[in-house]
Amino acid sequence: MEKILFRLMLSLLAILFIGNVVSAEEIADRGSLNSMLGASGVTEDFETFIITDNEATNIGTTDLNSSTVVFGQGPDLVVDGVVFHSDSFLQWNSEGYYGLPSKNISTTYSKNLTIYFMNPVNAFGLDMLVFGNYNDNASITVFGTESEDPIYSASNIFLSTAQSPVFWGYRDDMNIGKVIISGSMRDYSPLIDSVTFGNVVPEPVSSALFVLGGAVLAFKRRKAKV
């Protein structure tokens, strides 16, 4: 019995190793991201700030987090654990403004919008879009938690219209500290919406390995008492 359990444990270890060789990868779509994160995923959809439809508001701050108060609104305008930063002021865009399908944020006079994760995460995703038909080519640069050197970048992400959000996501098991979203064709950043982040749920094989390991230990203890 002990030999059988030992062989099963070795098999699961091999499967676990193979399954975790790729620890950094782009995430194809939001469904895949949600499956990875499970209940640990947190999403900011920028719907809390009260703004009249078909308008945009320069909120007069370069940093937006859960403690921000602007125009008598706040705190808790966005979820905990994340900071949205611009070298210029941030702008909150309403549903209907230049055909936008929902509220979102962008910068005013900076091509870059930075997202800081206050606690390390290993997966995130977001939707990017533009005003009306003012298309743009976006790029995304991902940074870890230990260095200012990028760990991954993607470019030439074409954003066509307000009605066609583009999802982009990334996973890195070594953790992600910040992300910079940049535009190339406008004086402001791409618009971002539905930012989801968190830590990947362990694969079922990992849980099975722990259970099997416990079974081996229990078997050995029971055998020792006999």
In short, what is this structure?
By secondary structure, the protein is of the alpha+beta class.
Features:
Jelly Rolls; 3 helices; 226 residues; single chain; 3-stranded antiparallel beta sheet
How would you describe the overall organization of this protein?
By secondary structure, the protein is α+β, with helices and mostly antiparallel strands. It folds into two domains: 1-20 and 203-226, no CATH class; 22-202, Jelly Rolls, CATH 2.60.120. Helix content is 21%, strand content 38%. It contains three helices and twelve strands, in the order H-E-H-E-E-E-E-E-E-E-E-E-E-E-H. It has helices at residues 2-19, 30-37, 204-225; strands at residues 24-27, 42-44, 56-58, 63-64, 82-85, 90-93, 104-107, 112-129, 136-143, 150-159, 166-182, 191-198. The strands form two sheets. Strands 1, 2, 4, 5, 8, 9, 10, 11 and 12 form a nine-stranded antiparallel sheet that branches. A three-stranded antiparallel sheet has the order 3-6-7, with no helix packed on it. Helix 1 (2-19) runs antiparallel to helix 3 (204-225). The longest helix is centred in the C-terminal third of the chain and has 22 residues, at 204-225. The chain starts with a helix and ends with a helix.
How would you summarize the topology of this molecule?
Layout: H1 2-19, E1 24-27, H2 30-37, E2 42-44, E3 56-58, E4 63-64, E5 82-85, E6 90-93, E7 104-107, E8 112-129, E9 136-143, E10 150-159, E11 166-182, E12 191-198, H3 204-225
Antiparallel strand pairs: 1-11, 2-12, 3-6, 4-5, 5-8, 6-7, 8-11, 8-12, 9-10, 9-11
